[in-house]
From TrEMBL:
Residues 37-102 form the RNA polymerase sigma-70 region domain. One of its GO terms (molecular function) is DNA binding. It comes from Siphonobacter aquaeclarae. The lineage of its organism: Bacteria, Pseudomonadati, Bacteroidota, Cytophagia, Cytophagales. GO terms for biological process: DNA-templated transcription initiation. This is RNA polymerase sigma factor, sigma-70 family. Keywords: Sigma factor, Transcription, Transcription regulation.
Amino acid sequence: MLKPDLRRSSPAPRDKTDETLLWLKFREGPQEVFQELVQHFYRELYFYGGRFTRDTDLLKDCLQDLFLDLWVYRHRISDTPYIRSYLYKSLRRKIHREILRQPSAGRDDSVTFDDVSSQEITAEQALIRTELSEYQTSRLHELLAGLSDRQREAIHLKFYGELSNEEIADILDVNKQSVANLLHRGLSRLRESWPTLLSFVLFHLSNSLNR
């Protein structure tokens, strides 16, 4: 049913009003709109899910299950202004459940948000929104690896997912102030280690940390 091509360029960006309309049309049932919904969100969900597991088969299965559930239960899904966070949270839950079912899973219920290197556009490149040299990209990966899992995930959701603090709080199951603290502490550590490259990121963040 799902055959999105990750090699294709990302779909044209939609603002949240457009995404809300797309969601509304999808819930009314036309399969063509469902395929449009899949194509629009699949790529960014794939990158987000890929931070929890390197098992691409597991990741694709979880994405398949997520979109299949959406299609089967589309008439029961409630209307929501937080479409992106709904999809992110649903995928996150499915991946965690599948990873913890594996024999190699640890005894606790935590799953690492990994700093996985990729040939595709990464959250870090989206975060600084500029072309990086190979050295700069490598250096940024090293700095992010020094942050906590929660700090890395919050930064990913903020800059790559373009989610509000309220939406991130819902995904991480914490309060809004905790998200602001995670972003502030994580980016402060990056600024201390690499002030010249990340200074303008903090300027951008100063207008959105408490949003």
